[in-house]
Every structure is written in C-alpha cells, then in structure tokens.
Amino acid sequence: MSPAPxxxxxxxxxxxCARICPxxxxxxxxxxxxxxxxLTAAILADLDHWRARTGPRALASVHFGGGxxxxxxxxxxxxxxxxxxxxxxxxxxxxxxxxANPKEAPAFAGLAQAGINRLSLGVQAxxxxxxxxxxRDHDAAMxxxxxxxxxxxxxxxxxxxxxxxxxxxxDGWARELGRALDxxxxxxxxxxxxxxxxxxxxxQAERGSLIPPPxxxxxDMYLLTQGMTEAAGLPAYEISNHARSAAHHSVHNRLYWxxxxxxxxxxxxxxxxxxHARGGRVAAEAARRPADYIAGAxxxxxxxxxxxxxxxxxxxxxxxxxxxxxxxxxTDRLAALTGHGVDEDGLTRALARGHVRREGSxxxxxxxxxxxxxxxxxxxxx
Length: 382
Known about the structure:
By secondary structure, the chain is of the alpha/beta class. It folds into two domains: 8-255, TIM Barrel (Alpha-Beta Barrel), CATH 3.20.20; 310-382, Arc Repressor Mutant, subunit A (Orthogonal Bundle), CATH 1.10.10. Helices cover 39% and strands 23% of the residues. It is built from 14 helices and 17 strands. The chain has helices spanning 36-54, 74-87, 108-114, 128-133, 140-153, 170-181, 200-207, 215-231, 251-257, 290-297, 310-321, 331-338, 344-352, 373-380; strands spanning 8-14, 16-17, 29-30, 59-66, 90-100, 118-124, 156-163, 187-192, 236-238, 241-243, 261-265, 270-273, 282-286, 303-307, 329-330, 356-359, 362-365. Strand 9 and strand 10 (241-243) form a beta hairpin. The chain is globular and about 55 Å long. The two termini are 36 Å apart. 42% of the residues are buried.
C-alpha cells in the first residue's frame, strides 16, 4: 500500500490595507478603490488550478495573511474556506488562522462564524506614541480591548509586538511586554524591529531622521524578552514565537520552518511542493500586482512555477529549520531530502563562536546564538 499523501497548508494573501505602515515590506496596497469581489473570485479560481496540481490531500492549516485580511468581508472568508474544503478537505482539528488589526474588532464575531479558529492580532506596541510612529491606526487601549474581544470569539489568540523601536528602553519594553503577558494568552509573536530596504523607515534611517536603539540595547531587550516569557510559562519555540505548550504552536508557520508543503494564493503569495530525495521541489510565486493576479487567475496564469535545484532547496531548509529552538536542523534529514549536508568549515566556525551546538544529528542554536540566526545559517549553508 502506498503512503498517504502529505498534508498541505494553504496561505491566502489579502494585500489590501487601510494604510501602509512605514516598517512594512510585504506586498501590500491601499484598500481605497480595491475590487475585493474581483480578487476573491480570482483566489477561488486559483484554488481550482492548484487542486489539479496537488491531487487529493488534506489541508492541515489555512492561513489568511497580508496585508490586512480582517478587512475581508466574512462572507468572502467563508467562500474561500468552503472552496478549500470542497477541493481538499480539512484534516481533523485543522488550524484556520487569520491576521487582524485591533480596529477590526467589530468583525471578529463574523470571522469566527465564517470558520476562523485562530486569530493573530497585530498589536505591534502598547505605547501610544510608538503606535503613532509605527503608523498604526489604533491606540494601546483599543489593542487591549481587541485582544480581550478576540479571546471571547476564538479558541486560539496570539498577538504580535515589535521591540527595539526608536527611543525604546529595556524598561519601557518590559512594561509593554508585562501588559501583554497579563492578558493570559497562550501564544505571543515578538519581533525585533528590522529596517527593511525600500520601506519608509529605511529612507528615514538613511536621512538620519530615524535612529533605532544601539545593538547592545536591542540585545538587552532580546534577553529580557526570553527571561520574561519563560517566567510567564511562554518560552520561545521559534526565534520570535512563544507558546505555553506544543498544543499552542502555530501549525501553519511550522510548515514553513519544517520545510513541509504549502500552496499560496493571492497577489505575491509563495508556494512550495514536494520533498523528494536529491531535491526537485516545486516553487511558485503569484503575480504581485492585484490587477495582474486577477487577470491571470481564470486561465491559470496567475502563478509562476519553477523547480528548485537541490542546493537551493538545502539552503532554504537550513535557513528555516535552524529557527526552531528545540528541534533545530536535522542534518540527516537534510541530506536525505537534498543530497547536501551543511558546510563543514562553516559548521566549525559556528560551533567555535558558540552560536550552535550538536545534539546527535541535529544542530540547534544556543540561547545567545538565536540573536545571530541568519549569520549562523549563512555559515552552514552548503
């Protein structure tokens, strides 16, 4: 008997936002004059084409990201979920997640009724001056009320916060993180601010009108984050993600970190399919502009497909797998899937720097090494 097909994840990218935050480098567009119905129809058509490519598999997760998918009408969310369930079916206990802004709290009941069972709330800060600097359209009080409202509607709730912001001190971050922990949530996503090229923040940094905290202050905030979350019973299970137990991990995000299979629909969405010995993984990227995506979806031309060579696949797997705090990167599995091991000279240097440690066939970031994850991955990449 042949093995059952591997489970899939489904990512739905909704690119529209009420406003574009100055730190954001995602594929986003202002929602004014957006043709939401046309985009929904295109996503449904794209799903049909993906079903022909994947064959019958159960969906382990569905995740609506963006952009601001909480701007979707709940009926549009329900339509996407209904089509996905018809085409693939949902695995028992499938995670159905959606990213939301606090300002959309009035839509939470409708989104829950549409089928969402995990909400990721983009709080970003719990300081009003910082929220204004980040370009957010809510204040701290609204964010806290939205988190409480979400807990009444959804079985699983997480909030996102950004630290190491301009003008932020470790004491200030400790107060904000403490307020978040007081909510009693089972999952937090805590990201150090990164100034991404091409963003408004990058342009401000070039002009000197934005000055992030120095590296040592950012490192202090990182260590403070680890200590406070561990004391509260939410240790990191991935570099930026914290959960009360394995039952509260993000099922969908683990597909990325573990190098599993997922399909992405919506403008600019990415997909990965296949895990064959010696490489051969299919990668896809959807047309980035909504108008181009809408135009191509009906004919199946919204997605550009290619096959990653074994080395490119191995590099991806090193970068993503190393982010998992406990499991780390399984080098035996890496070799079995791609035919490549890690770079031995790079491994020697990463070990000498104390950024990674060996645990059998696994390479795991040390506590201090988590702050250097990308540089460690670059050393280890074949």
